[in-house]
Specification:
Length: 219
């Protein structure tokens, strides 16, 4: 069996492309970040409406008039915040799970390179033993055996080549690991904190809407 078969090369290239796609990119996708920004804006507007008792006046551009029900506007804003929060949490959870899967693919790739290097070293050793046996049967003088550290050197060179290949394709990491972890935490926690604050401030409007919804469907 050849150690450079097309099937092995294709499988290795496919695995490499799979984890390189998201390895050093942002943990949250652009759609998730956009939803997070929308959630922050909606939460800030909702909190301002509740704190300052903002009423929506009917105009020619906005022909809406809730009359004496000033709680309708914060109610609608609170519902919008809750829906955006649900969408953001689901998207962020999916992206973070994707990041963990990427880490798993990295380990699989590295271990795959090590296995292939060990396989090549074993095949070369087997061929060397077979060559020595042929020389012995043919009466040729025995050649010096290969040093025991050659398989280790082969594995190390293959690992270094794999790392160099990954560095060339990925480039230098732009942010240190701890800073990236802090940014990831802020990207996830800040929209959730804003949304939670807005929902707590408008809890009376949410409760009123829930009671009205229940009474509307009650027999």
């Amino acid at each position: 069996m050849s150690d450079n078969s097309p099937e092995i090369d294709a499988s290795s290239e496919k695995l490499t492309s799979s984890f390189l796609e998201g390895l050093y990119g942002d943990p949250l996708r652009s759609e998730t970040m956009r939803t997070g920004r929308q959630l922050i804006i909606a939460s800030a507007v909702c909190a301002a409406v509740v704190l300052f008792n903002v009423r929506l006046q009917s105009t020619s551009l906005i022909p809406l008039d809730f009359g004496n029900r000033i709680d309708v506007l914060p109610m609608l804003l609170a519902l919008a915040v809750m829906l955006l929060l649900l969408s953001f949490v689901l998207r962020a959870a999916t992206d973070l799970l994707r990041e963990r899967e990427t880490a798993k693919l990295v380990v699989e790739y590295i271990e795959g390179e090590r296995v292939k290097a060990a396989e090549r070293a074993a095949q070369e050793t087997e061929e060397s033993i077979a060559q020595s046996e042929r020389e012995y049967r043919e009466g040729r003088p025995d050649s010096d055996p290969d040093p025991w550290w050659e398989p280790y050197i082969a594995v190390k060179e293959a690992a270094d080549a794999a790392v160099l290949k990954a560095e060339k394709r990925l480039g230098i990491r732009r942010l240190p690991r701890h800073l990236r972890q802090a940014l990831k935490t802020l990207e996830v926690s800040v929209p959730i904190v804003f949304a939670a604050l807005a929902i707590v401030l408008s809890r009376a409007s949410v409760y009123t809407f829930g009671a009205a919804l229940v009474s509307a469907f009650a027999p």
